[in-house]
């Protein structure tokens, strides 16, 4: 008779399972069971805190939180991520129950998926002086204009968070927010800052201007989204420009991201000038990411300034660039960092997928950058001439275009390459319904494209394996065919799906082995450091290092 397996202690269960159990006992209104669950939570969090708790509609409704409070055993929460619909609930009806839940001062990480009310945020910051990471989409103007502005009080609360190391606020920054942003300059441990839409503040104006930075940020990571005028007349009519060296200490900076540089913004020209003035001291920058707005009027000027900026730095390990429709940057800019470059991404907007590095450029770059381990580029398109399974399952040799094969052979010869991301279309000149009948109820159309992507991955990976490639991970970003899709089993957001594949050798006999693409939808979970190279530049996120050689 088989032995019975003893139930696992509650403290050893995964967090998701604990949340599921709690949701279940709460629905049963079983107070004694809830008390046991909460005791298990508390035991599991001593001496360590929870890793993370997501507050969502199924896991932290007001009634459920009230049940926790009445049990007398409130879990110790360290990381709190508040989703949008919960924030709306809090803001409209239940602020009274929300604040008492998190007044023990244990929070280290507080992230709001969208915006957060100024008064609520001020209260929470006062309760958690040891906060290390704070992120939100925007400061909403949730007060009557005739009332006293709440932002000075928020700035005071923020200035007392002396342990804060990370700050992110990606919404449109107005002049009312200047006191809050100025408070960042006095935080001694701040190392990472992400700011969005600096249209009206932190400009190069006279010293008496209230929006002029009070000092410089001694941070290692700086991300600015749309650092410049929007191009519309009602935005920043007196805009003169943002000088990075007046905002941040360039000598300490290790990661710089300038996302969607707008038309008319001279930020790159200013940056190149500032770097040249540093002389032999240089910077410690290791990662540079720059994307120029797709609709920029002065995109040619911005591209020239970008190339000058890239060559002004020394020893970059990661370089990600997007130049709209002007094609890739000059290969000499990439080769300038040949001895140090580990990760390189050349990205273009969807309308310009036919603009890419020539085969000669790729050969030159890979020969120069011996240590390159991650590459994300546009390849020649893969054309599915007819959708039959027989055609899709034919030899990769016959299905890959001659030009594409030449690119892949060049990539396979680079033995240090571990991860490849493909940024190109399949069937670029065909309409979807010429191949598959779309079934709205069963998402048949999306499933059909998923099959094509997987076959394409197998063709590419098998061909690379024939040429003794060392590739470990392959990614396809076919965002423009499924813009509205949420395909199961893929790493994607609403508009930009990504398909990941592990490259594995299959087959029993050594001379019959081949490299196959094994679907790897858990890539983000298991290999979060790949996010740097395997995401769209239009979706800014936190910095991660590139994949390691043994990945």
Automatic annotation (TrEMBL):
<dbReference type="InterPro" id="IPR036047">
    <property type="entry name" value="F-box-like_dom_sf"/>
</dbReference>
<dbReference type="Pfam" id="PF12937">
    <property type="entry name" value="F-box-like"/>
</dbReference>
<protein>
    <recommendedName>
        <fullName>F-box domain-containing protein</fullName>
    </recommendedName>
</protein>
<dbReference type="InterPro" id="IPR032675">
    <property type="entry name" value="LRR_dom_sf"/>
</dbReference>
<feature type="domain" description="F-box">
    <location>
        <begin position="13"/>
        <end position="53"/>
    </location>
</feature>
<dbReference type="InterPro" id="IPR001810">
    <property type="entry name" value="F-box_dom"/>
</dbReference>
């Amino acid at each position: 008779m088989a032995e019975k397996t003893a139930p696992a202690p509650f403290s050893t269960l995964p967090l998701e399972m604990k949340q599921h159990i709690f949701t279940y006992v709460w629905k049963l209104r079983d107070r004694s069971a809830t008390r046991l669950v909460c005791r298990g939570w508390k035991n599991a969090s001593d001496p360590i805190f929870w890793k993370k708790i997501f507050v969502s509609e199924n896991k932290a409704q007001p009634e459920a939180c009230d049940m926790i409070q009445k049990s007398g055993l409130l879990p110790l929460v360290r990381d709190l991520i508040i989703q949008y619909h919960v924030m709306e609930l809090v803001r409209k009806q239940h602020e009274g129950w929300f604040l008492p839940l998190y007044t023990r001062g244990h929070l280290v990480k507080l992230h709001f998926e969208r915006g957060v009310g100024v008064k609520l945020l001020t209260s929470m910051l006062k309760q958690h002086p040891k906060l290390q990471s704070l992120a939100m989409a925007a400061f909403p103007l949730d007060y009557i204009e005739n009332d006293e502005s709440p932002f000075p009080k928020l700035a005071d609360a923020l200035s007392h968070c002396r342990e804060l190391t990370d700050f992110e606020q990606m919404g449109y920054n107005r002049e009312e927010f200047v006191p809050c942003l100025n408070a960042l300059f006095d935080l001694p441990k701040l190392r990472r800052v992400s700011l969005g839409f600096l249209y009206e503040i932190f400009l190069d104006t006279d010293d008496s201007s209230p929006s002029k930075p009070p000092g410089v940020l001694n941070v290692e990571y700086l991300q600015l989204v749309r650092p410049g005028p929007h191009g519309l007349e009602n935005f920043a009519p007196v805009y003169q420009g943002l000088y990075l060296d007046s905002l941040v200490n360039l000598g300490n900076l290790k990661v710089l991201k300038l996302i969607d540089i707008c038309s008319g913004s001279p930020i790159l020209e200013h940056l190149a000038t500032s770097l040249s003035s540093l002389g032999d001291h240089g910077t410690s920058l290791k990662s540079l990411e720059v994307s120029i707005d797709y609709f920029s009027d002065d995109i040619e000027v911005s591209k020239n300034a970008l190339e000058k900026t890239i060559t002004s730095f020394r020893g970059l390990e990661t370089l990600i660039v997007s130049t709209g429709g002007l094609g890739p940057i000059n290969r000499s800019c990439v080769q300038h960092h040949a001895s140090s470059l580990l990760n390189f991404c050349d990205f273009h907007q969807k309308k310009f997928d036919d603009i890419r590095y020539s085969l000669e450029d790729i050969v030159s770059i890979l020969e120069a950058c011996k240590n390159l381990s991650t590459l994300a580029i546009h390849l020649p398109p893969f054309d599915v001439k007819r959708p039959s399974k027989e055609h899709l399952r034919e030899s990769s040799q016959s299905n890959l275009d001659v030009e594409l094969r030449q690119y892949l052979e060049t990539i396979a010869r680079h033995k240090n390459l571990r991860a490849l991301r493909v940024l190109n279309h399949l069937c670029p000149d065909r309409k979807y319904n010429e191949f598959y009948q779309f079934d709205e109820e069963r998402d048949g159309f999306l499933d059909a494209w998923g099959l094509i992507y997987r076959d394409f991955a197998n063709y590419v990976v098998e061909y690379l394996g024939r040429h003794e490639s060392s590739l470990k991970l392959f990614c396809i970003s076919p965002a423009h065919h499924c813009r509205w899709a949420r395909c199961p089993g893929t790493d994607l957001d609403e508009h930009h799906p990504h398909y990941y594949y592990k490259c594995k050798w299959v087959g029993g006999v050594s001379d019959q082995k081949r490299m196959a693409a094994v679907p790897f939808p858990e890539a983000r979970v298991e290999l979060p450091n790949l996010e740097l190279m395997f995401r769209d530049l239009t979706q800014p996120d936190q910095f991660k290092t590139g994949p390691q050689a043994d990945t």
